[in-house]
């Protein structure tokens, strides 16, 4: 990453200056209590809706703060950034507004929605590598080759100061917060929030959250060794190497870094859609995932988290929501062994109907099965009002002599 040992962390004055600088060009997003989530957790749960920024992420704050401080000569050279998506859109959008040419390097697996939106803001997009770190290396290479000004996604005092404006708004709305839970990728948002919160309320608890598959910041500040890598729903915080400056800041200011599983991330994304009627990407839901995964830790507290981004691929979101219905027992896939003879399918569907359950899809498997040649495996995908209705279907089928197995996600 960027060699930042000579850089000093921004101060609360830098954050306040950033707030004045970007005022009117970014959204002061809502900060609201969620009654339902508060009841579920047993705490007063506040949500900061940064997914309602124009580019659907908090990244606009730091990007704009950085761009506004470029010299005329730097603006004329153009800027370049490396990003899995949200920083890319932020730089592209505000660079276009300010008349600054922008090039963005993104990892090849970046969700299509993020690539097209970045291009839609007028930036030239270069796809390179499998991870953020690959895109970062390419962007640094192009910086030297073309003379661009590099806009780091997190390890930059001006970027961090811009991110810190989130905390100014949070504590202005809810000054008596006990705890703030923040997703961590490279650490820019958590660093900005930590600097601001410690200045305004020194005793506040500050907890970072990383995907279980990418515990890079936890290892950096707690000096531990853990496996790193894999496919995560939270690709926006899938960073192998956190910032040097951000690591220094968080080692000094953060109380803890929690890790959340993929299942917890999926559940949080689905709950935000179902309860708050808001779309949040995996990285943006990481804070809520952490709160839900350890309710006892937050019980009775006034706790806030930042829904830091909402740029999730629509197909992926659909998968997450359907998988949540499966885990809730609302949708099931039943493998029913039956004699391959007339009336077998009718008998099965009759039992499903009797339980008041709806059939979504039916498939026969006569060849690829371990059943005897005269038998067939009938796969029934069905949807019910609750898990007990699916249990009723299984009980009715087994009482009628069918052997039933339920498919599972776990």
Automatic annotation (TrEMBL):
Catalytic activity field: L-serine = pyruvate + NH4(+)
Known cofactor(s): pyridoxal 5'-phosphate
What does the UniProt keyword field contain? Lyase, Pyridoxal phosphate
Family annotation (Pfam families): ACT (PF01842), PALP (PF00291)
In its UniProt record, a GO molecular function of this protein is: threonine deaminase activity
| CDD domains cross-referenced by the UniProt entry | ACT_ThrD-II-like, Thr-dehyd
Q: Which residues form the ACT domain?
A: 333-410
Q: What is its EC number?
A: 4.3.1.19
Which InterPro entries does this one have?
ACT_dom (IPR002912), ACT_ThrD-II-like (IPR044561), Ser/Thr_Dehydratase (IPR050147), Thr_deHydtase_catblc (IPR005789), TrpB-like_PALP (IPR001926), TrpB-like_PALP_sf (IPR036052)
- What family is this? Belongs to the serine/threonine dehydratase family.
Name the chain's protein: Threonine ammonia-lyase
């Amino acid at each position: 990453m960027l060699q930042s040992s000579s850089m000093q962390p921004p101060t609360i004055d830098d954050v306040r200056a950033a707030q004045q600088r970007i005022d009117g060009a970014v959204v002061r997003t809502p900060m609201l209590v969620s009654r339902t989530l508060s009841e579920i957790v047993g705490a007063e749960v506040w949500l900061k809706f940064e997914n309602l920024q124009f580019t659907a992420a908090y990244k606009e704050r730091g990007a704009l703060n950085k761009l506004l401080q470029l010299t005329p000569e730097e603006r004329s050279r153009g800027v370049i950034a490396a990003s899995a998506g949200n920083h890319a859109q932020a730089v592209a959008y505000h660079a276009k507004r300010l008349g600054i040419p922008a090039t963005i390097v993104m990892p090849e697996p970046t969700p299509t929605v993020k690539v097209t939106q970045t291009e839609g803001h007028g930036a030239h997009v270069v796809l390179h590598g499998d991870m953020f770190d690959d895109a970062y290396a390419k962007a640094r290479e192009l910086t030297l080759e073309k003379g661009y000004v590099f806009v780091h996604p997190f390890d930059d005092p001006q970027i961090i100061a811009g991110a810190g404006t989130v905390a100014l708004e949070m504590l202005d709305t809810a000054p008596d917060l006990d705890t703030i839970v923040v997703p961590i990728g490279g650490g820019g948002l958590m660093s900005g929030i930590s600097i601001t919160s410690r200045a305004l309320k020194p005793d506040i608890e500050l907890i970072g959250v990383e995907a279980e598959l990418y515990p890079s910041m936890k290892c950096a500040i707690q000096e531990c060794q853990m496996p790193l890598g894999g496919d995560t729903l939270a690709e926006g915080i899938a960073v192998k190497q956190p910032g040097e400056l951000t690591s220094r800041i968080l080692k000094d200011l953060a109380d803890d870094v929690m890790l959340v599983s993929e299942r917890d991330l999926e559940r949080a994304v689905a709950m935000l859609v179902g309860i708050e009627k808001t779309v949040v990407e995996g990285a943006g839901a990481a804070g809520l995932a952490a709160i839900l995964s350890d309710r006892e830790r937050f019980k009775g507290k006034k706790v806030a988290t930042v829904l830091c981004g909402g740029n999730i691929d629509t197909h992926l979101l659909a998968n997450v929501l359907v998988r949540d219905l499966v885990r809730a027992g609302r949708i099931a896939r039943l493998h029913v062994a039956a004699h391959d003879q007339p009336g077998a399918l009718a008998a099965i569907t009759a039992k499903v109907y009797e339980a008041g359950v709806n059939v979504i899809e039916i498939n026969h498997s006569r060849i690829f099965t371990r059943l005897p040649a005269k038998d067939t495996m009938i796969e029934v995908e069905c949807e019910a009002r609750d898990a007990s209705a699916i249990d009723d279907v299984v009980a009715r089928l087994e009482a009628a002599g069918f052997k039933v197995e339920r498919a599972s996600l776990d």
